[in-house]
Amino acid sequence: MELPVHGSSNSSAPPNATGNGTAELSLCDILGPRRSPFFLPVTGVYLLIFLTGLSGNLLTCAVMAKHKKMRNPTNLYLLSLAVSDLLVLLFGMPLEVYDLWQNYPFPFGEGGCYFKTFLFETVCFASILNVTALSVERYIAVVHPLKTRYLSTNQHAKRVIGVLWAASMACAVPNTSLHGIFYLPERAEESAICTVLQPLWVYNVVMQVTTVCFFFVPMAVISMLYLVMGLHLGRGRRRPGARRGRTCGGDTRRRIRLETGRRRQVIKMLCESGRSSHAVLI
């Protein structure tokens, strides 16, 4: 959420504001309180999220690093998601907590403001694109299993993940370039705020384009892919496997039972993956 600095920057201190107490009061009137009134409860929630997310994502990375058998395309996408979560937890969340504790002045300068905005934009875009790519990989594995030999490989997944992160960084540049450090003319040192400096209509256009490209389009693609996968698995279940099982031998019946079990596992996986995908998008 951006501070309404464009509207408040037109305000000025009262002409008789000569004492420190009056000047401090005027600064609070313009920029709001230095510390958020919700600092303690929000910090407690952030701490819980930090401990839970850090432990879970570190375990994911540790398992992937220790067990080579776990390094398949699906788990590589999950590893990429874990890395994006760790970047937010280790770098983004401390900055958010600091902003709650002291809204101004922003102590990290112009570079810190760019880094904060660029980090949040990049990891958000990377998470959405990774979930979309994971859905495409599952779609190929279910609907076009013969293509998995050359499309669902570790090398192909690594290349796709690299392209996704590069695209996320490129798409984070426009919004990052709109931000900077805002100063009040007479109290520059104590009024520094990292916020949008460009006209708000430019920021609104960037946000609208971003919302379409990284929310509505991925949501539609993922929903369509899971719908097609569900229909494909449903047609497979309606095949007359029971009659074939009664007329064939024991090996054939065992294969049919194994195939049915695998299909049930795939359906369960698709439901869980689809639910997590929509959670990330939201």
Q: Explain this structure to me?
A:
By secondary structure, the chain is mainly alpha-helical. It has a domain at 22-210: Rhopdopsin 7-helix transmembrane proteins (Up-down Bundle). The chain is built from ten helices and two strands. The chain has a two-stranded antiparallel ribbon with strand order 1-2. Helix 8 runs antiparallel to helix 10. The radius of gyration is 26 Å and the shape is elongated. The model is unreliable at 1-25, 241-248 and 272-282 (pLDDT under 50).
Summarize it:
This protein is mostly helical and 282 residues long. Helix content is 76%, strand content 3%.
Helix-strand makeup class: mainly alpha
Q: What sequence of helices (H) and strands (E) makes up the elements?
A: HHHHHHHEEHHH
The CATH topology of the domain at 22-210 is: Rhopdopsin 7-helix transmembrane proteins
Arrangement of strands in the largest sheet: 1-2
CA(first)-CA(last) distance: 16 Å
User: What CATH architecture of the domain at 22-210 do you see?
Assistant: Up-down Bundle
Biggest β-sheet description: 2 strands, antiparallel
CATH superfamily of the domain at 22-210, by name, is Rhodopsin 7-helix transmembrane proteins
Shape: elongated
- Subunit organisation of the chains: single chain
Mean pLDDT: 76
Total number of beta strands: 2
Taking pLDDT < 50 over at least 5 consecutive residues as the criterion, the unreliable ranges are: 1-25, 241-248, 272-282
How much strand?
A: under 5%
CATH class annotation of the domain at 22-210 = Mainly Alpha
The level of helicity is over 70%
Radius of gyration: 26 Å
Family: Belongs to the G-protein coupled receptor 1 family.
Subcellular location: Cell membrane
Function: Receptor for the neuromedin-U and neuromedin-S neuropeptides.
Membrane topology: Multi-pass membrane protein
